[in-house]
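Lab notebook page, bench 4
Experiment: in silico fold of construct C2
Operator: M.H.
Input chain length: 568 residues
Purpose: comparison with the prior construct
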Amino acid sequence: MSADTTAGPATGPNAYTFPRHAQTFPALTPPEIERMRRFAEPRSYEHGEALFETGKQGPGMFVVLSGHVAITQRDGLGHVTPIIDQGPGQFLAEIGQLSGRPALVDGHAEGDVETLLIPPDQLRALLVAEAELGERIMRALILRRVSLIQGGAGGPVLIGPPSLGDMTRLQNFLGRNGQPYHLLDPATDKDAADLVARYAASRAELPLVVIADGRVLRNPSEPAIAYAIGMIGQHNHEKLYDVAVIGSGPAGLATAVYAASEGLSVAVFDQRAFGGQAGASARIENYLGFPTGITGQALTGRAFTQAQKFGADMLIPVSINSLDCSRPDGFFALATDCGKTMRAKSVVVASGARYRRPEIENLAKFEGRGVWYWASPIEAKLCMDQDVVLVGGGNSAGQAAVFLSGHARKVYMIIRGGGLGASMSRYLIERIEATPNIELMFNTEVVGLEGDAEAALTRLRWRSRLAPEEHTLDIRNLFLFVGADPATTWLEGCGVMVDRGGFVVTGTQCTQKDGRSASPLETSVPGVFAVGDVRSGSVKRVGGAIGEGAQVVAALHGFLADSMKPAL
């Protein structure tokens, strides 16, 4: 099971349905409750008393022994909507309680209520110690988050025109991080229109974001909304981690899962969302064990939840600005974008790559306003029954083209080269050739973009590489899948060796300074390892990245054991 958010939020007030009700709200037997007592502490509540409140840090998981608890949604506009009533033998929590995140809903006692409270650290211990019971609880926690996302319960309210580029930007950010949200259009909702009139002096201040406590943010950045809704809490910056993992794509998530499950303390950093480029993939069909394919969001969402189950701290969105490898106190120091410094005994570089931006006139002007570097259901909805252009000839481009063809009227696929055979898997080529509304344009490139006064894309210019004439296409959405460059600038000055392309060099190519034999995944700086797409010579496939993330844990154990040995 996974917190797959690709279905997007519902916008109606009564959108809460539980198609797998028995698994979402299982009843515990008396013997099961007895087995849980060693992880819990008794708590009593009087009628009307709050067990947990929207936007406030959740205390953990409650097991109801007697009485009933009403679960309701409360948004920043003051609307309260019933969700479900839970009674004896049921437990109250969702996936956020694994890490003590803010509650997404309210829970109030109906009559006198007796409960067992299992704090987040003990909840993780329960899930590991009680395998069969833990599996049922974990499945329920995940399904509850999925239901909240699909019902738009508990998250911020986004207010603005649906076509607004920054509206799409924030939807993508919240969706990629598994956070529920509501959408309100001021053109059709009076409350939304009143808020816009009061708080937004210009269109540039849209969308408005209303937090559960009533705060209103004007067109916030991703970190700003993350702090406001509690995605990033007041973290203990004095904590010393065994491993700091930079990047939460498949390689970084695999490292976190295997390292945390083997008892290492792990912190994972990512500047935007878990999953990396793989998390934005519409469908992954060549990964072992998924013969019908799986969305990148679903695959990486499972790993994200799994890492938290084993106790990894997921610090997203937090960027690492620099790495200090001088180690005056024996530890690595990581400077974050929030001005704090984190310390770790070892570092795994899994920062992957950043989307490559081709030389196209006015490209930056339309990013997020018609120019996209991924194709999720949010963008697909914008493209319904429209013509779109997709640039690229690799597997990611092929998957996106097939996905978009199910929504767009026509997909023009622009490829600089003369064919696809050298860059795309055969099964994708055959699928593209069999899709009637995908038109392949070889030896072609996009040269410029044009738009209206609100900076929305309306037209692009293209030309054949075999002729000088320019042509135009009236389109509102352009998708770029033209590769990526390694995200390694934050390593500058640390002494980590990179190749000509900027990818991190590992293994025997590195010169170790302490006489140890180099691990295949260790960099030129002892204690700093690299896995996944950022590593020089990696295969740039999801399966390879996950394999390297698992493999590096043995090398971490070796380094940490050596570093603890007293000097002779």
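Observations: The first helix runs from residue 21 to 24. The radius of gyration is 25 Å.
Next step: discuss at group meeting.
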